[in-house]
Automatic annotation (TrEMBL):
Alphabetized InterPro entries for the sequence: 3-OH-isobutyrate_DH-rel_CS, 6-PGluconate_DH-like_C_sf, 6PGD_dom2, 6PGDH_NADP-bd, HIBADH-like_NADP-bd, HIBADH-related, HIBADH-related_NP60_sf, NAD(P)-bd_dom_sf
Domain 6-phosphogluconate dehydrogenase NADP-binding: 5-157
PROSITE patterns: 3_HYDROXYISOBUT_DH (PS00895)
Pfam families: NAD_binding_11, NAD_binding_2
3-hydroxyisobutyrate dehydrogenase-like NAD-binding domain ranges (all copies): 168-281
Keywords in alphabetical order: NAD, Oxidoreductase
Protein name: NAD(P)-dependent oxidoreductase
Amino acid sequence: MTGCIAILGLGRMGSAMARRLAARGYSLVLWNRTPSKARALAEELGAEVVASPREAADACEFVHIVVSDDEASLEVLSGGNGVATKPLTGRTVFNHTTVTPRHSIVADSIVSRAGGVYVEAPVAGNPRNALEGSLVILCGSRAGEDVCSAKHLHDLGEVVYLGEPPRASAAKLAFNLSFLSIVAGLGEAFALAESYGLSAERFAREVLGRTWLKAIVERYGERLWPRGKASFAAALAGKDARYAFEALTDAGLPGSVAAAVASYYSLMTLMGYGEEDYPSLAGFLANLAGNKRNQQN
Ligand SMILES: NC(=O)c1ccc[n+]([C@@H]2O[C@H](COP(=O)([O-])OP(=O)(O)OC[C@H]3O[C@@H](n4cnc5c(N)ncnc54)[C@H](OP(=O)(O)O)[C@@H]3O)[C@@H](O)[C@H]2O)c1
């Protein structure tokens, strides 16, 4: 084992984190479920590729998981040749996947039982922030704050220590629920305007643009409309809204807003827009209303 850093999961976020760490001079070991992606990135960055999460954990002291959801995280940790299928003595496992608090507790116990240190470390920010080292990393571990001070973690962005798991996972879902509900609310407002003959663009420009909500419309700009490219896919945003709902109901709370946001994103995904950028839920709902009105006229 050396002081190398293993990155497991090389999608939009994992590959951006790998690029950032490689640019800062760290020695990387890469694994991805679809091996061709790992090979291409390793060639670009001069990194090593391994055939399984377990081989990555054998090779490196620091293991970072950046996969899509609870199921993928569980698979990487304890599926065939998973990270924790052999002892993890001397290893620290950072999980950057946005997961449910319930999963974070399970993941912590899997890694701890194997003798490793588990750190939940979901990130706020997008792949560009990862490339620039300006993510906000919400960090939590039963091993205490020191494990969140690892230098390479600070090279990825600002680290905020929140205590023991699953607090950081809960904070990440609370953060995502904040901005996803804004986008969904905006989409429903666009749909309302469209239904009564006022285009969403005109409503945004001539009404919202004259109020404090101008900042939100300007922040998202063209991203409010489906345009075939995503930095954070709508399907994953829907997963996060669903996880926020589950976390709230686990706490005995209603989660009505989270449920509504999740159902809008699942409609978007079902209609073939799951790989669109998450803010385009607003334009998607406006288009649904516009099409309905056109059919009625
Ligand atoms: N993109 C963002 O702006 C952003 C921001 C903050 C947090 N996040 C969170 O970061 C995580 C990754 O997001 P992303 O945008 O990088 O997603 P992504 O581009 O869709 O990549 C998903 C990654 O997960 C892997 N994966 C999926 N299912 C798997 C399984 N069963 N076993 C092993 N690997 C599996 C994929 O492997 P394949 O290549 O084989 O499909 C891929 O490497 C998510 O939890 C997301 O919510 C994303």
